[in-house]
Amino acid sequence: MKHWDEVRTAYHVARFGTVSAAAEALGVHHSTVIRHIDALEAHLGLKLFQRHARGYTPTEAGSEVLRVAQATEDQMNQLESRLRGGGDELKGEIVITSLQEVSHFITPILAKFRAAHPDVQIRYMITERLFRLEFGEAHVAIRAGEAGQDPDNVIQPFFQMQMGLFASQTYVDRYGDGIDPDGLLSDHLFVCNADEALPAPHYMWIRENVPPEQIVFSSTDGQTLIQAVQEGIGCGFVERGQAQDLGLVEVTLQNQDWRVPLSLVTHVDLHRTPKVQAILKFLKDACKQM
Amino acid sequence: MKHWDEVRTAYHVARFGTVSAAAEALGVHHSTVIRHIDALEAHLGLKLFQRHARGYTPTEAGSEVLRVAQATEDQMNQLESRLRGGGDELKGEIVITSLQEVSHFITPILAKFRAAHPDVQIRYMITERLFRLEFGEAHVAIRAGEAGQDPDNVIQPFFQMQMGLFASQTYVDRYGDGIDPDGLLSDHLFVCNADEALPAPHYMWIRENVPPEQIVFSSTDGQTLIQAVQEGIGCGFVERGQAQDLGLVEVTLQNQDWRVPLSLVTHVDLHRTPKVQAILKFLKDACKQM
DNA sequence: GATTATATGTGCGATTATGCACATAACGGG
DNA sequence: CCCGTTATGTGCATAATCGCACATATAATC
Q1: Which of A78, A89, A251, B94 is the most exposed place for a label (fewest CB within 10 A)?
Q2: Distances (CA, A) of A266 to A133, A167, B35
Q3: Confidence (pLDDT) at A42
Q4: Is residue A4, in this structure, part of any structural domain at all?
Q5: CATH number assigned to the domain comprising residue A230
Q6: What domain range is A21 assigned to?
Q7: Residues with Cβ < 8 Å from B57, sequence gap 6 or more?
Q8: Closest chain B residue to the Cα of A77, Cα to Cα
Q9: Does position A181 have pLDDT exceeding 80, yes or no?
């Protein structure tokens, strides 16, 4: 495989999703980017991207390129830092992904990390969808539930997310907080994520135990769900720290604890890089001193 | 760091040691190579190579580039194989280094590996000098004695090399094989490596126990030493299997076994690559079934 | 010690890649 | 429904790169 520069171009296209954005990031004209992609595809004899009027979507093959090129990009950046006498300073982008529930806990840690490493840019992707580490979409993923069995993933335990069933004060005033003897499910209304495939145990509990007619509000967006709880539509699962910040009241329907073990997941190809090692250490240290 | 292609060029220069050889390997004119190096150095603001009339010698910085680029080259090759629908076939070069003593054992294994993976080229470097894995000079090193403490190296035990003190039949006819009671050191002549810094225990034994005047022949080249033993100049340490092939006779001066533990050493950056994993598995399997 | 082989450097014409202007196509909003 | 925005493509002039020929320097050889 010659043409490393073309691979680098393809990498940026895959990252941004459009030729134009990639061209701007690379500091070249967008026609150059198109021609690089065309040349690379011609050389390989296969399509790396699905041409779309709104941008370029990576094919399976294109995603493979993305992963390899991201590892290379990181190594090149690291190399440059070292060569420039800058010692082992970190630079470049770090992509982290997690569920929305833990974001208010993660963000301050990331802020401290940024302060310690001024040359890194942090991209924190909040999404319900599982990012595919094997395609280089993220350096570090914070995942809940059982970790996938992909042997290319390096998994280590992070901390336990403290979920709880919360509601607004107005809701509790009307429907009770469930603490009174035999707090029944039938007395309550629920707010739940609309995505039925989510593996999180508390959502599974709702789907299994709550009659559908009592799920009065659902959405695919976590922030919207919290807002629904705040508005008093029903009670729903919120992370404890976040619930306290928002002044929500806990509703205790069963003496069940909703701790969700979180894992830090990285792809093996990226796991050894100084950047990933640094952010992992930072995250784990921050979790220890809690 | 832009200019991945220039890094690739520098990589080949560092590998071959000359601009001309790199140019031929890359399929470009040597002036192009020179200009790539010049541009890269200008961009980084430091010298990657020491210009010499006989070639380019990598500086410390140049060696760093070599290591990173080798990891990248391997990943690119692997990527191309996968993309071309070739599944996970291995291709490209694998560099292995070891002492001369184990070569006759390693070579058949490498031959089988080659047969199983037709697209790989094997470069087997026999050298007394320790190759510096951290500079990407080799994928796998087979080392004797205590492994270095470099945290960037992944070390795993390989097998025990069976050394023995051997001599030619003509030598034994004249000086005895040492098996008779109280075979004395003073009755024998020795052949020994001229390099005094070698850590191998049998060489250390010679240096500590044999009076210098009885070391009648020394050389820095292992093959030459064996030849000297074959010629009956003296007795010297030879690997048992090799000694048998050559029809040498064992000389037993002390009831000491000269087993030398060997280790497989790889650099962390390369250790996870399919190529290195494949060759390591092959070597370890071959060692198990002995 | 002259010769040969093998290197590294450099000016110049040919080749190639790039940037620019412009064309085209889809989505979204008032 | 039309128009603005944001995309992808495509000639064409220009700029950058490359290959070639040639100059130069050094180690090895006879």
Answers
A1: A89
A2: 7, 35, 39
A3: 93
A4: yes
A5: 3.40.190.10
A6: 1-66
A7: B17, B49, B50
A8: B1
A9: no
